[in-house]
């Protein structure tokens, strides 16, 4: 059978290592006779709908190699456009693009919503007589793809690097807090994580022996404003200071963020960094209003997108595994393995080793991982050693080798070489039509 082409695309928030998964797909596909040209959907599925397909096979090999240390999604773009069941015109358009460009493989890199899209698109293509393998590449800094038993996937590329960021960040925060505590004894830090606590939990990696006055509050464990103020005050009495890490989606009874202040993305998810007020600022204001048992005030730090795109904080383990996840997706494609996401499974818990496998897209799309309740301390202010055993190998040791030229980071510079457009121009359906009521 003649080689058919592959489209790879990205969806959702980027990570420090997402491009290394793309690199794994491209470099592996170049070695496989079954796969012809590799295209990238520019800005995810939106690029596919608009027939904006970047030719990755035509790129210089050295630029593809540089994707390994190029963070975020500037190289091929991402999107937050979801194909919902009512968008029949969009589904039809994707299939037209596949047919026009001899696409036999579609790899979507992202989280649960992306896996659902990959599954729907490829299944529909097959129903319409197109032999398309739909595959997924795992990506999410939240580590919420998969199941809570870690049987579908142990962890997702992107999480290890964000966890390492928070490990490094809290160590530096502790130095700041120790020095400025006579005036600013409490420092409240907000971490990404709408509903799941793997990112704020990673703060404990900075202090595995629990020597810092560190309090960690995960979104999974609700707390009242009275409780959290009392716990901060008690820590200040004992240590003279406190470092507090909160999930951006933490629900504090008695200190709720009004719905009108919350901004939501096209998936309906809150984007707290875009909202008019943050839980960290609200908590800081309330703590200062109620007062502390020591001199001084509370301050807050709200980390932005740097926690998901800092290549200098990237984990070398995460970089290696993200590449292998992309490699596995390309191998699954060439083998005709339709309907799977490439996965990372831990094979030895004591001496960290993994294998690269596959999980059905349908199971991944319909699953939701939670932070294990027994990994949260009884008082809700810490995580257990079991979490540390799980997360410590993921942040690795040492720093990634990032090329610097003339004092500036050398990122990949992909040529905007697009496939010839063969279809009429198209505006994605959700951009011009409201969903049915």
Q: Can I get a quick summary?
A:
By secondary structure, the chain is an alpha/beta fold.
Distance between the termini: 46 Å
Mean pLDDT: 94
Percent range of helical residues: 25-40%
> How many domains, as an integer?
2
- Say what the CATH topology of the largest domain is: Rossmann fold
Write out the strand line-up for the largest beta sheet, numbering strands in chain order: 3-2-1-4-5-12-13
Count of alpha and pi helical runs: 13
Q: Determine the oligomeric state from the structure.
A: single chain
Rg measurement, Å: 23 Å
CATH architecture of the largest domain: 3-Layer(aba) Sandwich
Q: Can you summarize the main beta sheet?
A: 7 strands, mixed
The CATH class name of the largest domain reads Alpha Beta
- β-strand amount: 15-25%
Class from secondary-structure proportions = alpha/beta
Features of this protein?
437 residues; alpha/beta; Rossmann fold; 2 domains; seven-stranded mixed beta sheet; four-stranded parallel beta sheet; 13 helices; 15 strands; 18% strand
């Amino acid at each position: 059978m003649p080689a058919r082409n592959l489209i790879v695309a990205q969806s959702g928030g980027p990570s420090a290592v997402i491009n290394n998964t793309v690199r794994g797909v491209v470099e592996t596909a170049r070695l496989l006779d079954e796969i012809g040209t590799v295209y990238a959907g520019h800005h995810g599925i939106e690029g596919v709908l608009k027939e904006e397909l970047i030719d990755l096979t035509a790129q210089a090999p050295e630029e593809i190699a540089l994707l390994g240390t190029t963070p975020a999604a500037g190289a091929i773009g991402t999107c937050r456009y979801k194909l919902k069941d009512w968008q029949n015109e969009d589904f039809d358009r994707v299939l037209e693009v596949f047919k026009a460009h001899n696409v036999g493989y579609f790899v979507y890199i992202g989280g649960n919503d992306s896996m659902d899209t990959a599954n729907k698109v490829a299944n529909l293509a097959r129903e319409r007589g197109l032999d398309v393998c739909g595959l997924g590449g795992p990506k999410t800094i939240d580590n919420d793809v998969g199941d809570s038993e870690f049987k579908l996937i142990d962890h997702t590329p992107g999480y290890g690097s964000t966890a390492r960021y928070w490990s490094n960040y809290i160590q530096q925060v502790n130095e700041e807090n120790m020095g400025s505590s006579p005036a600013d004894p409490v420092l409240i830090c907000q971490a990404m994580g709408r509903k799941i606590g793997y990112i704020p939990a990673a703060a404990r990696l900075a202090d595995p022996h629990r020597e810092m006055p560190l309090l960690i509050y995960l979104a999974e464990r609700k707390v009242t404003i009275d409780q959290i103020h009392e716990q901060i005050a008690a820590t200040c009495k004992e240590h003279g200071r406190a470092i507090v890490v909160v999930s951006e989606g933490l629900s504090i009874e008695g200190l709720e963020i009004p719905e009108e202040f919350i901004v939501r993305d096209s998936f309906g998810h809150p984007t707290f960094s875009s909202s008019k007020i943050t839980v960290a600022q609200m908590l800081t204001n309330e703590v200062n209003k109620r007062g502390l048992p020591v001199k001084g005030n509370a301050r807050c730090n709200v980390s932005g997108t740097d926690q998901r795109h800092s290549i200098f904080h990237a984990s070398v383990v995460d970089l290696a595994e993200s590449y292998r996840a992309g490699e596995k997706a390309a191998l699954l494609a060439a083998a005709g393995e339709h309907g799977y996401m490439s996965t990372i499974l831990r094979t030895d818990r004591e001496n960290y080793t993994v294998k690269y496998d596959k999980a059905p897209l349908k199971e991944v799309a319909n699953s939701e991982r939670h932070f294990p309740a027994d990994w949260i301390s009884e008082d809700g202010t810490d995580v257990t050693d079991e979490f540390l055993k799980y997360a410590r190998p993921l942040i690795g040791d040492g720093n990634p080798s990032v090329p610097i030229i003339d004092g500036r980071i050398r990122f990949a510079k992909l040529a905007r070489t697009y496939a010839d457009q063969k279809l009429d121009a198209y505006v994605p359906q959700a951009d011009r039509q409201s969903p049915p009521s």
